[in-house]
Structures are given as structure tokens and as C-alpha cells.
Design brief:
Elements: H1 2-22, E1 36-44, E2 60-70, E3 78-88, E4 98-112, E5 115-128, E6 140-153, E7 158-169, H2 176-182, E8 186-195
Antiparallel strand pairs: 1-2, 1-8, 2-3, 3-4, 4-5, 5-6, 6-7, 7-8
Length: 196
Amino acid sequence: MIRKLFVVLLSAIPLAAPAGLLAQSAPFHRSAPNYELYGGYSYVFRAYDSTQTNPFSGGMNGWDASLRVPFPIFPSWLGIKGDVSGTYRNDAPNFNPHAYFFLLGPQVSVHLGRSTVFAHGLVGSSHLNDTAIPSLKSNTTLATAVGGGLDIGFSRALAWRITGDYYNTNFQSSDVTVQQIVNSNGRISTGLVLRF
């Protein structure tokens, strides 16, 4: 499923290429926005489990917000991104994990007219509520995320983002189900971007 997601994201690049060709005659790439504020919906996949009827069921819905600022001294295509997100699963009365991610790292962006293709590598921490999961040895752990996406620009200040990430956490639990839900998962996210 994760491979299909990245194939879709890579397939979107040629769709944005015509806008990039038109941009050669416009000065947008010189005045590309330095700051990006994003907020949207996200879905975190559960690890693949071939023993279940629907092996991709049991993911977590949530939200994602990020801010990208220019990296001082470096070119405008390199920025620093802070990402905060929350994911929730409420389909069982005694098992409702809530996970929160606080990540920071570099983002590389290529502007194609009003649209932008980007890739990022983020590191930080993840916190999981342990009231629903008493078998956790610690409810906070190191987290990393690697991914990228496409901002489809409507104007210089407004775009719609489609992004995909691969998360990696290291929550220690004696429960295999917990490890499948919260460790090493893919995430897709979509929402509005304000650029200034």
C-alpha cells in the first residue's frame, strides 16, 4: 500500500510539469513564498497483517499541521519544517490509542509555477496515551518521518497539499497489536496550505 502511495505521488509530478514550463516566462520562481502554513486531515495505516480478513484495516484517523520557514543563509529551496500531528483510534471500547508526533527537519522544495514538489526528513518525539495500553514500557519515544508531496497551487498564497510519509517509532510493548498499530507506519495527509 505504501509503495502504491509513493507511485501516485511520483505520478503527480508530470501533471505539474506543464505549470513549470509556463512559469519560465513568469518571475514566480524568483518570488516564491518563503513561509508555508499547512493544516489538514491525515490517515495512518496499520502495518500489513495477512492473517486478517481485511489486512489493511485498523488504521488511525487524525490531523496534521506544519510550518516551513526559510533556512538562513541557504537558497530558498531549502527550509526548516516543524510538523505536529495527532492520530486516534476509537473502534474498540478498551483499546483507543491516541498518538501525537512532534517533528522537525529540513525540507527541499522545487517550485513549478504555482505548484511545489517537496521532500522532507523529520526527527522528533512521539507520545502515546498509556491509559488505553497498560503494557507500554514508555509512552514517549524517538520518532522519525521521511516523505514528500505536492502542493497544487491555486494562487501565490493558496495551495492544496497531498503528502505521504513513512513513520518510524519504537514503542515497546508486550502486545503485538500495539506494535503493529503505532510502530513503522505509512501516513497520507491532505489539506490547505497558506503561503506568504
